[in-house]
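hiii so um. not sure if this is the right channel but i have a protein structure encoded as tokens and i wanna go backwards to a sequence. like what aa goes where. can anyone help
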């Protein structure tokens, strides 16, 4: 038997309580081990979609399935373990007195303790190059360091799928590149929301364009970025002078 898709989203529609409808029937799947960029203009519904992936918001209509498990009240604890969301602002994610405690928080809440927990924390911090910072308070770290620790808190759960909302925002060029190296080195399914189109091209072989609450395009990232009409139609702009055809495209591993 082949592994189920990491993510199946079918007919997902959602209106906020004030009546504003943000998603109008979103359909896509992400296979295990894929790295997929989720692109789209401000207000397209990207964050709304992300909030459905671990049940922070629940579908008005349609369904979200993670590794064959329906996202809903029944499996919430397991879903929260399987879907690791790195929010745009690391301060939404880090709240313990030390980095170590922040990274241990999720696995400890899931019942892990002792040497197993310590090992899990060390591995996650090593993956993001922050092992030397375990005893520091997160609020004394730089923004880029906090972003890495936020990634570690999620990796410590060994998620089925890592979901990142704007991972490269506010990072200096070296930190941005180092995070790319980290993400590329991980053996995990990735869904990355980003306005940083060169970053999407570098890291994700496949991209989705979410526009006005529906998937407007789904294909190889380089092809979508090179389609001027498509890009214009969805308010996507490449940085000045950037030619997606000149970049060797991301590979799956
Ligand atoms: N709490 C809320 N109540 C009502 N409407 C909301 C709420 N949050 C978001 N919206 C609306 O839903 C739509 C989608 O918002 P969302 O935050 O998902 O967009 P986004 O694609 O993440 O945009 P950005 O690129 O700016 O982060 C927008 O029109 C927004 O105004
Ligand atoms: Mg958003």
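sure thing!! here u go:
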């Amino acid at each position: 038997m082949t592994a189920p898709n990491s993510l199946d989203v079918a007919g997902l529609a959602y209106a906020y309580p004030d009546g504003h409808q943000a998603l109008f029937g979103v359909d896509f799947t992400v296979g295990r081990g894929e790295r997929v960029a989720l692109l789209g203009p401000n207000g397209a519904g990207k964050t709304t979609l992300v909030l459905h992936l671990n049940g922070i918001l629940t579908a008005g209509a349609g369904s979200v399935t993670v590794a064959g498990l329906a996202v809903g009240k029944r499996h919430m604890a397991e879903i929260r373990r399987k879907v690791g969301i790195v929010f745009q602002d690391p301060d939404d994610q880090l709240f313990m007195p030390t980095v170590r405690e922040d990274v241990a928080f999720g696995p400890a809440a899931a019942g892990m303790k002792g040497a197993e927990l310590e090992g899990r924390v060390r591995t996650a911090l090593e993956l993001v190059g922050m092992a030397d910072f375990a005893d520091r308070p997160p609020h004394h770290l730089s923004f880029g360091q906090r972003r890495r620790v936020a990634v570690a808190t999620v990796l410590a759960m060994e998620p089925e799928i890592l979901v990142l909302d704007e991972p490269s925002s506010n990072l200096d060029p070296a930190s941005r590149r180092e995070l790319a190296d980290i993400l590329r080195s991980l053996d995990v399914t990735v869904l990355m929301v980003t306005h940083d189109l060169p970053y999407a091209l570098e890291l994700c072989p496949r991209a989705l364009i979410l526009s006005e609450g529906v998937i407007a395009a789904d294909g190889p990232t380089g092809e979508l970025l090179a389609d001027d009409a498509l890009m214009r139609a969805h308010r996507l702009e490449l940085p000045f002078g950037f030619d997606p055809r000149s970049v060797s495209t991301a590979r799956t591993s």
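oh and Residues 16, 18, 20, 22, 40, 42-48 surround adenosine-5'-triphosphate (ligand 1) (CB under 6 Å).
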